Amino acid sequence: xxxxxxxxxxxxxxxxxxxxxxxxxxxxxxxxxxxxxxxxxxxxxxxxxxxxxxxxxxxxxxxxxxxxxxxxxxxxxxxxxxxxxxxxxxxxxxxxxxxxxxxxx
Amino acid sequence: xxxxxxxxxxxxxxxxxxxxxxxxxxxxxxxxxxxxxxxxxxxxxxxxxxxxxxxxxxxxxxxxxxxxxxxxxxxxxxxxxxxxxxxxxxxxxxxxxxxxxxxxxxxxxxxxxxxxxxxxxxxxxxxxxxxxxxxxxxxxxxxxxxxxxxxxxxxxxxxxxxxxxxxxxxxxxxxxxxxx
Lengths: 105, 180
Fold this sequence. Notes:
Chain A is of the alpha+beta class.
């Protein structure tokens, strides 16, 4: 993983994290919006400008790739590089969570 | 035949929030936007007064697939209206929103949009300013009468106009960066 990717995506925004998390399965942008809303009991509503911007940026950086188009909706899937970034982020968030719990005890 | 009105309004590149607010007020007064054309001519159509939020996006990536771009917004409840100098115009009725909704749900994606506007709109202005306006202003400053004097005054006006646009941009960017 090159330095640019690491600098831009580690740590990443909540939106970016949810996109990569969801795209472990093939999905289109609006599908991600719905899934995230479900997962967070409607507390996180991703907006279309944010989604479109993030998806095109991640595609350009090779974290996700375009798979197919269905009824004018682009379907994406995570790449190996995307998985690597997601792993790094998951480790970082786990550490954050662990430390938070320990400090609270 | 629907009643149409046209207005002329000039918003500089940094004033997109004011533009959004202006379009919202027009809709509240019963005029919905149909299109924006050359130099800032806004065409409205008579409609029922309603509180409708207008939003501008700037994303050149959309040219790779306009239909997909519009579909993403439509799925999220935003109606696409038109394009004007790189900006895309969207609207959504306030009554259909859970709370204050915009087309950007986080600050980093909003800043990224500003970055795209900077590259697409401000960089060309800066180049024109540095490569044409400034050298011409200096070259024409020697004349005390005639055509040269006229040119000097014209370039002076352009110089101050551009400086104003740059200041507005800087203020807008600073506000966005420091917003709580």
